[in-house]
Amino acid sequence: MFKALPKTAEASTSPELRQAFESHLGETKGHVTRLEQVFQALRKKPKGQTSDAMKGLIEEGEDMVSNTEQSPLRDTGLIAAANRVEHYEIAAYGSTQAFAKTLGVNEAVSLLEATLAEEKKADEKLTELAESSVNQEALRAASVSR
Ligand SMILES: [Fe+2]
Fold first, then answer.
1. DSSP class of residue 70?
2. What does pTM read for this prediction?
3. Could you give the residue ranges of the DSSP H alpha helices within 42-145?
4. CA of 146 to the centre of ligand 1 (A)
5. Which of 45, 89, 133, 146 has the most Cβ atoms closer than 10 angstroms to its Cβ?
6. Which fold is adopted by the domain 5-145?
7. What's the 85 CA to ligand 1 centre distance in angstroms?
């Protein structure tokens, strides 16, 4: 997701949406660092592994971008795609945190809590943008072009 976010920001029309993606990119960088710290707390070495589910979600977003022009309508699709990614991340970090709790590794629990809070906030911010402006913008643009 860290690699996909700059393209997502660039594909956005709404400056607020672009800003939200750029700001989450910065947070996502921090999530990678926190994950490294979680591995340290567990005394394990991190290994890179591609998530097929995440890859699929990103591909769906890319397909939507290539099938739309830069427009408020595309923005609604970007938000919908990003909400799916955030929910997947929330589920993954949530179950990882539950494992850390079971193992009694409190440092990992706290690190994952911080990341979970940012993921939930990013998800809520996207929904708020959709409901407060982006969806209406898309509807207005569609009405004009009809
Ligand atoms: Fe995220």
1. S
2. 0.94
3. 52-66, 72-103, 106-129, 135-145
4. 36
5. 89
6. Ferritin (1.20.1260)
7. 7
